[in-house]
Write a structure and sequence with these properties.
Elements lengths: L2 E5 L5 E5 L3 H13 L6 H21 L4 H18 L4 H9 L2 H29 L1 H24 L16 H5 L23 H16 L3 H20 L5 H22 L12 E8 L6 E8 L15
Antiparallel strand pairs: 1-2, 3-4
Helix pairs in contact: 2-6, 5-6, 5-8, 5-9, 6-8, 6-10, 8-9, 8-10
Length: 310
């Protein structure tokens, strides 16, 4: 009902509007923001569709080769001015050790997806109350990266004109990059800024470091994005400044999650509260009213779990 009837002093009934839409809207919005227990079928479908959409949009961005190469030249000069233009030296040094560079090629091609999916599965099983908000960080980070690909096309170092960078995938005949060899026609080669290898790996690292309870897992969480940074530079797929772009995108993702949920994802309860019915007897009226209370699973003193704990 949207109105109620009251009786005035002269005895006539009059309809007075009763505002119920606003509380209902607030309640609906609150329910949307409240963490819920994730459902496996929905998550698999969501992640699959989201990655397909991301790849479709990323590869649909026009490959503006001329502008991308000009931007790469500008970044290379800017890094020289800042004294951090060491990518070429790192590229040549690591390329001289065949087993190391081949391993980095495969690292670049696989762990970007394997580790990210692994962390999502761990969150789903061990931290369901934090899963949705942490996933939102990842999705918002990836979404804003698409804007960067469109507004700032950038060639990776290995494609620069008049440069001495080594395309390690081509030289060593490995499949370490979607933008090299026979796979180059399936991916936008000029979408290097920002680096989602850094954005995703830092998301994984922070999540593991914050929520894992065993020291070795936390150390690995910190080492993963640091190692990824070395790999993207050594394989000549990114500049150092591409990594800065990835960090900025991740910052945006955390900001979105913080504004939506009212707290950082890691500060939310580990488990999802459940709803139970309880009876409450009114005083002075002799009538009972039924209310809903939210109860959650009891949490241990340490609110974190081992990475392999379900």
């Amino acid at each position: 009902m949207t109105e109620t009837t009251v009786t005035t002093q002269d005895g006539h009934a009059r309809a007075v509007p009763y505002a119920v839409a606003a509380p209902q809207q607030r309640g609906f919005l609150r329910r949307l923001r409240t963490p819920r227990r994730p459902r496996i079928w929905f998550e698999i479908l969501l992640i699959g569709v989201s990655y397909w959409t991301y790849s479709l949009i990323r590869n649909a961005v026009p490959e503006q080769r001329g502008e991308a190469l000009r931007n790469a030249d500008w970044i290379w000069k800017a890094e020289h001015g800042l004294g951090i233009a060491v990518e070429e030296s790192v590229n040549h040094a690591v390329n001289s050790v065949t087993w190391l560079i081949v391993g980095m090629n495969y690292y670049y091609a696989t762990l970007h997806f394997v580790v990210t999916l692994g962390v999502l599965v761990w969150l789903f099983r061990s931290h369901p109350g934090r899963y949705g908000a942490t996933r939102l960080v990842l999705f918002a980070t990836t979404g804003v990266a698409l804007v960067g690909y469109y507004l700032y096309p950038l060639a990776p170092p290995r494609l620069m004109n008049d440069s001495h960078f080594v395309d390690t995938v081509m030289v060593h005949q490995t499949w370490g990059s979607m933008a090299s060899g026979d796979l180059k026609n399936m991916s936008n080669q000029y979408a290097a800024m920002p680096s989602m290898h850094i954005g995703w790996s830092l998301w994984c690292g922070l999540t593991i470091f914050t929520l894992a309870s065993v020291p070795w897992a936390r150390v690995l969480g910190l080492l993963y994005p640091a190692t990824t940074l070395v790999v993207i530079v050594a394989t000549a797929n990114h500049f150092w400044l591409d990594a800065v772009g990835g960090v900025l995108c991740l910052t945006f993702g955390f900001t979105v999650a913080r504004l939506w949920h009212g707290a950082l994802p890691y500060a939310l309860p580990r488990v999802v509260p459940g709803k139970t019915k309880s009876k409450e007897t009114g005083t002075g009226t002799g009538t009972g009213t039924e209310t809903e209370t939210e109860t959650g699973e009891p949490e241990a003193a340490d609110d974190t779990l081992l990475p392999t704990e379900s």
